[in-house]
Amino acid sequence: MIEALLAIGIIASIFVGFNIGGSSTGIAWGPPVGAGVIKKTTAAGLMTFFVFLGGWTVGRNVMDTLSGGIITIELTLSAGVAILFFIGLGILAANIFGVPVPTSMTTVGAIAGLGLATDTLNYPVVAEIISWWIVTPIIGFWIGGIIGRYIYPEVNRRVQIKKSDGPLLTLDQGEGFPKPTLGPNTTRSELVSTAVVLIIGCYMAFSAGASNVPNAAAPLVGGAGGLADNTAIIIATLAIGLGGFTIARRTMESVGGELSDIPLLAALFVMVTASTITTFLSWLGIPISLVMATVMTIVGIGWGRATRPVTVREAVTRDVEDKEIMPGAITAEEMEGKLSAPIGEAEPEEVLNAGDLFNPRAIIKYISMWIIGPSISTVLAYGFFLLVPGVA
């Protein structure tokens, strides 16, 4: 009986990890793939490796929280399998609405539902997690705002990330051993910028592993007949990698299209900020959604870039009647290599006509899923474990 239950749990874990891989790979590698910096297959391979590193190291702290911190009793194998089922339902609902899955929040909601039904909920831990869910979007927004207002415009006019025709590197077959050399059209600047893009992509994959591997692995860890930590991490990683090599190929093409048509440089700022926030909170053992930090950083950069025509004094006093604020400024590729207007002065015409930074309806849909997703999983899990107490 235990063996059959464990087999069902492993299948459910693979399903969850597979869908996580489809979503997270697109977020981490969509911008570099779209810019032609890296191939989809290479991106999926790097994603799998660094997801494993993130889950194997920092992700263990999140696993401890999910498997033993949210409730005051040990998470049994049968309860873990049921929780994976509710996570799968959350993934399905998010896919129907066409938004990235807030898997960490859905997982916490399902375990919290178990705790409420069995009167074993660890309220201080849950309160701490929810407080971080509230603070994280604010942190992402304001960091993005500072970047968009003071940092991005200056970096954007100095740095250009472009892909030249032909291979980035070639092998010199001259005397001695073959050694890599620059491609026929490759500049040293392009080589350095490409390396930076790849490093940032790997960093984001690491943070995705730290936050998402525990969602597929933790419910199967502990309890009689459960898996060992290392085994669960490996299974979850392989499932995420499978999703990266298959369904993520489409998400890598389309990621960011609904939120913003931002250039690669801005996307890199977003990736570094979101990855750092997610990795830090995962290190603290807080289950957090990488999507949450990513979306709000995008919004923050756009807001900061758009409010450059307004000084801090004018923003505080709201004396901005003669100032035009356009959120589309960040998408103006014509600004590359040109001097941005100083703070408090109007931007050039090509910036003001750049279009919308993001789709407000899409932002509302994302935020709604952050609230609805964990709420639904909590209610469903609570009802299930209340009606079938023997499973817990």
Describe what you observe in this structure.
This protein is an all-alpha fold and 392 residues long. The chain contains 14 helices and two strands; from the N terminus they run ααααααββαααααααα. The protein has helices at 2-34, 40-56, 59-68, 77-97, 103-118, 123-158, 188-217, 229-245, 248-254, 264-283, 290-306, 312-317, 349-352, 360-387, and strands spanning 169-172, 179-182. The chain has a two-stranded antiparallel sheet with strand order 1-2. A hairpin with a 6-residue loop joins strand 1 and strand 2 (179-182). Helix 2 (40-56) runs antiparallel to helix 8 (229-245) and helix 7 crosses helix 8. The radius of gyration is 23 Å and the shape is globular.
Shape: globular
Arithmetic mean pLDDT: 80
Q: How many H/I helical runs? A: 14
Q: Provide the β-strand percentage band.
A: under 5%
Strand order of the largest sheet: 1-2
Name its key features:
392 residues; 67% helix; two-stranded antiparallel ribbon; 14 helices; mainly alpha
Write the layout of secondary structure elements.
Blueprint: H1 2-34, H2 40-56, H3 59-68, H4 77-97, H5 103-118, H6 123-158, E1 169-172, E2 179-182, H7 188-217, H8 229-245, H9 248-254, H10 264-283, H11 290-306, H12 312-317, H13 349-352, H14 360-387
Antiparallel strand pairs: 1-2
Helix pairs in contact: 1-2, 1-4, 1-7, 1-8, 1-9, 2-7, 2-8, 3-7, 4-5, 4-14, 5-14, 6-10, 6-11, 7-8, 7-10, 10-11
